[in-house]
Amino acid sequence: MKKRFLFFLSLSLVASFAIGLFWLTKEDSVKAQDNQQQPHPLAEINQKAKDARTGNQTASVNLVGEMIRVAAFENELPGFTETSIKERVGRAESRYRGYGRTSAGNMAINVWS
């Protein structure tokens, strides 16, 4: 009886060591693959903002859509609301850029006037 107990104890110890070793090596390889595939979410917003500087309405609409996607608001907004927001902000941005304005910069903005 004692020999069986020692045999099963040693067998389970070796099996758990092998499973643990396999688990540790597999987890490291999965982490390495995940780090390579996930770019920073703000990188897309930055690229779309650079594209929208020209005053192109489509680029502005794409920028607003990317901001809604990254902020995870697409599930909060019904379809027509999201489209309406994108179009309105896109039109406003293209009009703003169309008049030759670049940005607010360091202008003193008086809110109470």
Write down how many β-strands occur, each being a DSSP E stretch of 2 or more residues. Answer: 0
Major beta sheet summary: none
Low-confidence stretches: none
- Output the radius of gyration: 28 Å
Large-scale geometry: rod-shaped
- Overall pLDDT metric: 76
Order of helices and strands: HHHH
Helical region count? 4
Instruction: Please estimate the helix content.
Output: over 70%
Beta-strand content: under 5%
Structural class: mainly alpha
Quote the distance from N terminus to C terminus.
94 Å
Structure, described:
- The chain has 113 residues and is mostly helical.
- The protein is built from four helices and no strands.
- The protein has helices at residues 2-37, 41-52, 57-70, 79-98.
- The longest helix has 36 residues, at 2-37.
- It is rod-shaped.
- The model has no long low-confidence stretch (mean pLDDT 76).
List the helices and strands and how they pair.
Blueprint lengths: L1 H36 L3 H12 L4 H14 L8 H20 L15
Q: What would you say about this model in short?
A:
By secondary structure, this protein is mainly alpha-helical. Helix content is 73%, strand content 0%.
Keywords:
single chain, 4 helices, 0% strand, mainly alpha, 113 residues
